[in-house]
Amino acid sequence: MSTENQPATPAEESPGESPSSEPTPAPETDRSPGAWGQFVGNLRNSPRLFRDSVIRHGRPTSDRAASQAVFGNFFLHILPTRIHFRSLKFRTTLGLGVITLVLFFLLTATGIALMVYYKPTTDQAYDSMKDIQYLVPTGRYMRNIHRWSAHGMVACVLLHMARAFYVGAYKPPRELNWVIGMLLFVLTLALSFTGYLLPWDQLAFWAVTIGSEIAQSPRELTDVLGITSWFDPGGAIKHLLLGSNHVGQEALSRFYLLHVMVLPLIMTVLLAVHFWRIRKDGGLAASSRESQVSRESSVQSPESGLPQASLDSSKTYGLMAVVRGRTPAVDRVMADTVPTYPHALFPIAALSMVTLAVVLLLGHHYDAPLTEMANPAVPENPAKAPWYFLGLQELVSYSALMGGVVIPTIVVIGLMFVPYLDREREDVGVWFGNRQGRRVCVATAIFATWCVIALLAFTINVGWLRDWYPRIPQIVITFVNPGTVLLAVFVAWSLGTLKRTNSTRMGALATFTCFLVAFVILTYFATVHRGPNWQFYWSQADWPVH
Ligand code: HEM
């Protein structure tokens, strides 16, 4: 990391530009303007003086000034002053991290605007939503932008996670950042879920009621064991979430506080750590092959003109070389890097503007839904969760405990552990690792698609245990249902892949692909093909009229 933070020397400034922040003082003459003249002059110059106080260097035309532009800026200094060519290629990141961040900023800005008008009480919440929709100037637009940004953020976080996984960016030294990413993923879902209740309409009320029933589902087990009266984790979680036994004012107050304060604060802190770790882990994941080429090219062509970093592999940059040990950036030479300003900053700015434009257009064309006011006496049928939870809701329809608690917990904790189970260092930074990885992903995608569709078709056409044995104890269905069968099949497939290929990376690719395929198909299926009483329908047009 460059640490040059001294001001540029005049020789380095381009001609014709103001070299420093201070305006050149006018020579003292007899005709010195006096206080009034100075005041008028300062007033006239104030835009330039303000700009000079913010941007303390001239236009960054030299490499050094460009580095200072990044290094000396509070917001930008999270970026390195130079960046590898490879990190700039669109296919390396697909821009997903940046898009997610922009959406988070948008959510924060529009959320603050909505907070001014929103009233978090069960009597007033719905009316205040109507006010925002119909009375507050640009209120509807703000709400639409907030809603579409939230959906977009969930989608982009998922895709960003998938891209980090498929390039192996979870491997050492990035394990911790992967775990922090998983926490960000859970936080994003929690933020979205808590926001879902706030409009206090039928959709919100019944989705959260179902959510709280799922939270209570460990009772499926404790009831069977006959211990619920003294050990009731399900009831405790539900009570913690709602503050009572049903969705009411206590739940609304809790969700509001979590949504506008607690979760965004935790998210902001974790994001700062996420970005800081990217720097400390030596930038974005790159393959050892590329680093090698980069190293060799710098040795062979020192005349490239670019500053050369040390090739002494015993050198450490940790704690300014005070301690022994090596950091990931050691041995990474500066050949193949370019100044972050403008090579990375301009594309980031362009991507941010495109993201903003897309969300503004969506907000302009599509209104966020608002159904009737919440009515605990009139259940919604079907009451569907937001789209990203619909896959889980499908599994919950077989067993609330397995689908709503156990399987998601296994998936999240399992994904967090992947970096500690797969330690192979080869082909990091390369999509799917190598040709074998691509083959494993394609085979797994086909296999997982077949499994999920076959199982769904089977349960719809033939039924499941309860249809064949109506008196079967619930505990059996809790452990043997389509969700647990899928989980077992996927675990077996992933372990089989690991053994067959003799590679933990291949096993990890198979696991993640199973998870992704199941998520996509179950989400699609529950969105399109589930209707009243969670029955199968080919389309919504076939739903019974009532
Ligand atoms: C709130 C959401 C998040 C934001 C705003 C965010 C932002 C970013 C950004 C801007 C980068 C730099 C490169 C890029 O664009 O890919 C990055 C890298 C990374 N992110 Fe995230 N991220 C988020 C969530 C996640 C999640 C859910 C995971 C995984 C579980 C994750 C794992 C990683 C990893 C491992 C890297 C390093 C990638 C590499 O070295 O190639 N992030 N993130």
Give a verbal description of the structure.
The protein is mostly helical and about 550 residues long. It folds into three domains: about 85-280 and about 340-380, Cytochrome Bc1 Complex, Chain C; about 290-330, no CATH class; about 400-545, no CATH class. The chain is built from 22 helices and two strands. It has helices at about 35-55, 65-70, 85-90, 90-95, 95-115, 125-135, 140-165, 175-195, 200-215, 220-225, 235-240, 250-280, 290-300, 340-345, 345-365, 385-395, 400-420, 435-460, 465-470, 475-480, 480-500, 505-530, and strands at about 80-85, 335-340. Strands 1-2 form a two-stranded antiparallel ribbon. The radius of gyration is 28 Å and the shape is globular. About 35% of the residues are buried. Residues about 1-20 and about 295-320 have low confidence and may be disordered. Protoporphyrin IX containing FE binds near residues 104, 167 and 284.
